[in-house]
């Protein structure tokens, strides 16, 4: 059974069709890279999967269940989302972690400081940043913090939207290797970085669908 | 106890003449406020005269039902003004905002009249209408700041909002940080004015009572009680307004409905 399915999706923005009868099936444990020109609908796909956007026609299914106002909340708890273009607030980094892991959906994870520090070290984040303020972080540091959180969430599906865009080549390689090495996880990756081009990663080129 | 000195009609005309100073300054510096200033001054005069005449009859009749109706009328105006100034959709926001003001003002007004002042009749026009007006007038400002900020911030910071939804936050969990910021913004001016009260300015109620011949000690006690009551009424009205409205403002996916803002935006 597919983890995520999109059936005959139609999405229009101001009468411009971004998707017109688009279908997609993502199997459990599959690793899929999505590419396409700007405006091709890459991020729109993730928004549809997370229920931030509803299609003008067609349906989104998560584990065979149609995404609607009641099923979307469970689906979101099964996905870890990281985007290059997200806002993680303005307070302390530490409070940001506390807030996310205080949610009912995440309480069972019992993440402690050492778990966080291990990943900080793994992705070359200075441990002192944990006590620092979010606005003082660079774009790359914010991105890695969001990556650390997504890993700690340990969800079955990862939606990764240009997560290596602000990083140097060494870190790009390290992060891609980490995610591609995860066993049993379903990965959807939006990226133009070559580090994600591996044999077992299926490619969907949205430009070729038109 | 002596009453306050009468202000003659001529003296009131002189008070209007004071307006010439800002009008001349506005002309000199080409500040385009004269028209609005004149309209506002005319509105203020008309409204206060009508209210003044109505209050004379209300105080004479002192009928509980009439007094309560007056307060409910003020609650309606406060709700309309809040929704109007927040530029939110009337259909979605007016009924819950009215309810929030009614509950918050009703509770605090009852406590003020029945417990603090210990009135025999909590519907006494001099207290119900006057204190009710002060509570509403002040909590109205806080409510406009609070409710506007809450919905504006979620709209402006949509990415942060959606990120937390994606992290597994429930509808309640995801709005809490926005609620916290809105409450802080709504209450900040009150906290600041409480801290400077008496040092920077003598507040209206106390000034009125002292001019009216009341003992300053009594005036101060009333002022303290009213400030605390206003603070509580504001806290209650902002939180209740957000609490009652937020479920109607989001769709079942937890996404802020675009229709909550008026089309003119």
Automatic annotation (TrEMBL), chain A:
InterPro entries named in the record: AAA+_ATPase (IPR003593), ABC_transporter-like_ATP-bd (IPR003439), ABC_transporter-like_CS (IPR017871), P-loop_NTPase (IPR027417)
Keyword line: ATP-binding, Nucleotide-binding
Xref: SMART domains: AAA
Gene Ontology MF, one: ATP binding
Top-level taxon of the source organism: Bacteria
Pfam family of the protein (one): ABC_tran
Domain ABC transporter intervals: 4-208
PANTHER family listed in its UniProt record: ABC TRANSPORT PROTEIN ATP-BINDING COMPONENT-RELATED (PTHR43119), ABC TRANSPORTER DOMAIN-CONTAINING PROTEIN (PTHR43119:SF1)
Protein name: ATP-binding cassette domain-containing protein
Species annotation: Fulvivirga kasyanovii
From TrEMBL, chain B:
Membrane-crossing residue ranges in chain numbering: 6-29, 41-59, 65-85, 92-115, 127-151, 190-212, 224-246
A matching Pfam family: UPF0014
Record has Membrane as a keyword: yes
Principal location listed in the UniProt entry: membrane
Subcellular locations according to the entry: Membrane
InterPro entries registered for this protein in UniProt: UPF0014_fam
Membrane association type: Multi-pass membrane protein
Superkingdom of source: Bacteria
Keyword field: Membrane, Transmembrane, Transmembrane helix
Descriptive protein name: ABC transporter permease
């Amino acid at each position: 059974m597919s983890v995520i399915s999109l059936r005959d999706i139609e999405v229009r923005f101001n009468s411009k069709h971004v998707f017109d009868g688009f279908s997609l099936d993502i199997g459990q444990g599959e690793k899929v890279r999505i590419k396409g020109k700007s405006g091709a609908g890459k991020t729109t796909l993730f928004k549809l999967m997370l229920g931030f956007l509803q299609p003008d026609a067609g349906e989104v299914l998560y584990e065979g269940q149609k995404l609607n106002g009641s099923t979307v909340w469970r689906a979101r708890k099964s996905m870890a989302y990281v985007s290059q273009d997200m806002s993680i607030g303005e307070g302390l980094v530490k409070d940001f972690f506390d807030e996310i892991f205080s949610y009912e959906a995440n309480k069972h994870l019992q993440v402690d400081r050492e778990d966080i520090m291990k990943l900080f070290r793994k992705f070359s984040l200075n441990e002192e940043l944990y006590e620092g303020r979010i606005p003082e972080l660079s774009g790359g540091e914010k991105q890695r913090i969001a990556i650390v959180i997504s890993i700690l969430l340990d969800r079955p599906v990862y939606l990764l939207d240009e997560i290596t865009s602000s990083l140097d080549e060494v870190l790009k390689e390290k992060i891609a290797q980490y995610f591609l090495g995860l066993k049993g996880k379903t990965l959807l990756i939006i990226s133009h970085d070559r580090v994600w081009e591996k044999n077992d990663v299926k490619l969907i080129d949205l430009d070729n669908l038109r | 106890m002596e009453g306050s000195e009468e202000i003659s009609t001529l003296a009131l005309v002189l008070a209007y003449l004071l307006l010439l100073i800002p009008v001349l300054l506005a002309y000199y510096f080409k500040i385009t406020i004269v028209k609005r200033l004149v309209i506002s001054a005319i509105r203020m005069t008309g409204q206060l005269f009508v209210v003044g005449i109505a209050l004379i009859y209300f105080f004479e009749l002192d009928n509980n039902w009439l007094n309560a109706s007056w307060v409910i009328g003020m609650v309606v105006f406060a709700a309309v003004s809040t929704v109007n100034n927040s530029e939110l959709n009337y259909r979605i926001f007016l009924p819950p905002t009215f309810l929030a003001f009614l509950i918050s003002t009703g509770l605090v007004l009852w406590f003020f009249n029945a417990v603090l002042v210990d009135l025999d009749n909590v519907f006494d026009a001099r207290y119900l209408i006057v204190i009710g007006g002060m509570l509403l007038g002040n909590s109205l400002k806080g409510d406009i700041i609070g409710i506007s900020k809450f919905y504006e911030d979620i709209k402006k910071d949509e990415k942060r909002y959606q990120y937390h939804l994606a992290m597994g936050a429930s509808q309640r969990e995801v709005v809490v940080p926005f609620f916290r910021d809105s409450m802080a913004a709504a209450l900040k001016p009150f906290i600041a004015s409480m801290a400077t009260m008496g040092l920077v300015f003598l507040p209206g109620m106390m000034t009125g009572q002292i001019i009216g011949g009341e003992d300053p000690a009594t005036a101060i006690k009333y002022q303290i009680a009213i400030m605390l009551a206003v603070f509580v009424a504001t806290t209650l009205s902002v939180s209740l307004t957000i609490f009652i409205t937020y479920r109607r403002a989001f769709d079942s996916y937890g996404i802020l409905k675009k229709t909550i803002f008026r089309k003119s935006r």
